[in-house]
Task: structure prediction
Amino acid sequence: MGYRVVDVDSVEPESDRPSECRKLAEPGGLDAAAINRFRAEPGEQLPLAYHYHETQQEAFYVLDGTLAVETPDRTYEVATDDLFVVDPESPQRAYNPAEADGPVTVLAVGAPPASGDAVAYDPDDE
Result:
């Protein structure tokens, strides 16, 4: 048996993200899934770009605030305590709208872990 407690605030945020991203899979010893906690101020997006994953399914659980998720068909508003799921090959861009009243905090889980399968998506190419 094995157990771990991870102090999320002790995990250093990624330096290359447009919002605060703390990658928790490695400190948690997770091999089969990626898990990240994002905190985005108004006007910040969670991922690096509008994208999709070839094999990874993603789930965004909103801990606080309202998350906007742009897709080719529409923009979803995901409220606190709601879950938004993205299937493989489904383009999306998650962000906190500039007009939001405050930050949004999101727990993002992806499986299998994305090891380079993210593909940039440009809606103008449609």
Summary: The chain has a mean pLDDT of 93. The chain has one helix and ten strands.
